[in-house]
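Quick illustration, no need to memorize.
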Amino acid sequence: MKPLLHASLVNDPFKDPVVYVDILWERRGILFDLGCIHRLPPVSLLKVSDIFVSHTHIDHFIGFDHFLRIVLNREKSVRLYGPKGMISNVAGKLAAYTWNLVDRYNLVIEVYEIDGPKIRRGDFICARGFAMEEKGEFEHNGVILDEPHFTVSAVPLSHGIISMAYSMAEKEHINISKDALERRGYQVGPWLKDLKEKVRRRDLTGEVMVPTKDGEEAVPVAKLEEAIITISRGQKISYVVDVLYNEENLAKIVGLVKDSDVLFIEAFFSEGDSVRAGERYHLTSRQAGEIAAQAGVKELRLLHHSPRYKDAPNLLKSEAMKYFRRG
């Protein structure tokens, strides 16, 4: 069964925290945070449709300019999510440049700033010199993006400022059995994607033209679902960085990331530096491991290490895994 979502760290754990999610079959990518992204090839950045920023400290937002330069003359819209103040942060970035030769560029940056139960939207339109157009505000229940294949949820955490944590959940995974295809003599092709969409929408009436070795055959959708499709729980990928360890934040994090297939979480300090971690509003490796264990996470991926541990690169991972496996 091929997963729909392929998530990976862009940089090593001692550098800027960025996670890239490749959405299989859609030629589409998602970014969690926007630190240094020079390691991502332009072909990957051009696939990005949505960016989820935790907060705008420089190591989480400095990649905005590089991303903008790559997509500037493309006809596309990009959605960018972040905490309250995100619209003014983007406006400040864009105001640093002169935009007198972009009237034929069709890029639009849709900015969504999350403020408690409300989201305010402002669109920056390249062809108008990135003038901002207010799009109003709407309420949310924790789910900030609801797509046909997946949702993205968010919670605000304390880092001295608000730092958003995110979780991306596939609604369900629809898998095609290759063995069942071969037994029936069906050929692979674009019709399988159309079939999956019908099943996802529960549109089981009608027929699908299925290519076979001898031509095409009209097969009822309901029969195909029964014969060649299995439906299972979808993937869940979560992202948590720059957060103070306290009871309120712990409850929010566990509620958000519970049962994640993969949790990307910071381990900025060693447990031996827990006092310093509290002063700097960061997690220790032990805290990261215990959170993952308490939330029933399947795979723990660490990021965002303090450079003070570069001479002992495996220390934070070994500490976190010790407490993760205990759970």
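The longest strand covers residues 131-139.
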